[in-house]
Amino acid sequence: MTHHDGETSPQPQVAVVVPCFDEGAVVDRLVEALVPVLASTGRTFEVILVDDGSRDDTLERMRALSHAHEQVHYTALSRNFGKEAAMLAGMSRSRADVTVLMDADLQHPPDLIPSMLALVDAGHDQVVARRDRTGDPAVRTALSRLYYRLVNRLIDVRIQDGVGDFRALSRPAVRAMLSLGETNRFSKGLFAWVGFPTTHIHYRNAPRVGGESKWGSRSLFNYGLDSIISFNSKPLRLAIHLGMLISVLAVLYGLWVGIDSAIHRNPVPGYTTLLCAILGLGGLQIMMLGVLGEYLGRIYMETKQRPHFLVREVDGGPPGDLPLIG
Ligand code: UDP
Ligand code: MG
């Protein structure tokens, strides 16, 4: 069995990192599409597939692919650590001048890569591929527009609609990403946070060529919460403002009811107002406790300083001395 050792072979100019979770249905097609495009650029390249604890035959296919193509390498994680960790594992293995991140499902067109590389050569450290929303349900488009407006008000870095993880990064940008050690990785925000000269390139949205998306509407909602909470503590500040506003309103309302009954001899309105106040405030308090707890939970997770992922197998062999974390 051949061992393609990324450490001893010469450093390629381009590395393409692909996180894969249950992508057995598409990973062959991806490599078949990717290799000719990369070869056509005339640059030396490698494809780094990361198996994120797939339950299907993804890993067997990766073994076969790395056997068949000397440019194809893979890292298999010990279980499913999530896309962020899988990307980190791939990036930490890349020694190339330019690293391209893309999804396995061919929703990110490989044909775009040559123009992205040209833009990196032209001095942009991050070349971000931005998709339009053709074919997306109108409700989803409207909701995501709302989401981006809200998030950009709350967090300090600017994130844009249609901008995902499909991007080309220069070596300094990759090193910057690897230097961020936080456990809770909201990559859209992290990419924006590291900065560097950035440019965008547009492409048309396409459906997945096979397999299934791992995102339901519930995980999208949680992702939305993550994006706000993992970036700063403005929600805590918001809680203080909201609490103050409600206290002031309560005092004003109390005054008004008192004056009204003293002057006009109106009876004090009864349990309806009380109930509204109790329920409203109760809900608010529980919500704000949740916000508080969320931050506390994150602090707890960060203090553990656990590695972001664990490697089980690399290119047909044990992980050896390859870095476990970035
Ligand atoms: N992915 C991963 N680990 C996960 C979930 C997803 O590595 O826990 C990979 C997946 O294999 C794909 C990419 O992340 O290459 C994007 O996933 P998906 O296509 O399901 O997301 P969508 O395009 O629907 O946002
Ligand atoms: Mg997809």
UniProtKB/TrEMBL annotation:
TM region(s), chain numbering: 238-259, 271-296
**Ranges where the Glycosyltransferase 2-like domain occurs:** 16-175
What Pfam families would the database entry show?
Answer: Glycos_transf_2
Q: Which UniProt keywords apply?
A: Membrane, Transmembrane, Transmembrane helix
Cellular component, GO annotation: plasma membrane
- UniProt protein name: Glycosyltransferase 2-like domain-containing protein
Transmembrane helix recorded as keyword: yes
Keyword Mitochondrion applies: no
UniProt family annotation: Belongs to the glycosyltransferase 2 family.
Question: Which SUPFAM superfamilies does the record associate with it?
Answer: Nucleotide-diphospho-sugar transferases (SSF53448)
